[in-house]
Write a structure and sequence with these properties.
single chain; alpha+beta; tt1808, chain A; 6-stranded mixed sheet; 3-stranded antiparallel sheet; 5 helices; about 25% helix
């Protein structure tokens, strides 16, 4: 999903949280600016649903919880709030949270042509401020392709790219799956393939 800057005066984090709670639509909050979240395509929705379903089933009874794009995430070491397509937390502090989680170990963004560059660069730079984040997953909507940025034991980020036929491993939650599971029921538009 894309974020579009709203023309509001700058808000404090507390003002944003109070204001946003009353809004019909979701808004991200970055550097004091409010951004309205716009809708995505059916493929975007299907991929997010497929990923969330797979994660939810895998995490049952493991002390972790998966959230959809309605769950707000506070970026650690900042006053920024975003709505990833899918997030997972295993942190005890998030189990008592009621408005947002702050300690995700996994974040999934489903790419769209308008947000791909932002999600790969700026949003990743924002997310990796979080000490708890171990895996950042980017899922293409135009072809069977997933990139996973994983934090290694030295705290450095490495990227692995997966394509059709690959088996994916997400270490932070000990999950292995076929890439095709994420793309079940996806109908690719031949004009959008690169």
């Amino acid at each position: 999903m894309a974020a579009v800057r709203e023309h509001f005066p700058k808000l404090t984090p507390a003002e944003y949280l109070d204001w946003e709670q009353e809004q019909e639509f979701r808004h991200e909050y970055l550097n004091g600016e409010v951004y309205a979240m716009t809708g995505g395509t059916l493929n975007h929705s299907r991929i997010g649903r497929n990923f969330l379903t797979m994660l939810t089933l895998h995490l049952q009874g493991k002390g972790c919880e998966a959230f959809n794009s309605d769950a707000k995430v506070q970026i650690a070491a900042s006053n920024d709030y975003v709505y990833p397509d899918v997030s997972v937390t295993c942190d005890e502090r998030d189990k008592i949270a009621t408005k947002f989680i702050s300690h995700p170990c996994l974040i999934v963004e489903v790419l769209s042509p308008s947000t791909a560059a932002y999600d790969r660069r700026d949003k990743f730079n924002l997310y990796r401020r979080s000490d708890s984040l171990q895996d950042y997953v980017l899922v293409d909507t135009n072809k069977i392709e997933i990139d996973i940025y994983s934090k290694n034991e030295r705290g450095r980020w490495e990227i692995l790219s997966y394509v059709a036929g690959d088996t994916i491993e997400i270490q932070s939650i000990d999950l292995t799956f076929s890439i095709e599971q994420v793309f079940e029921n996806i109908i690719f538009d031949p004009e959008s393939e690169g």
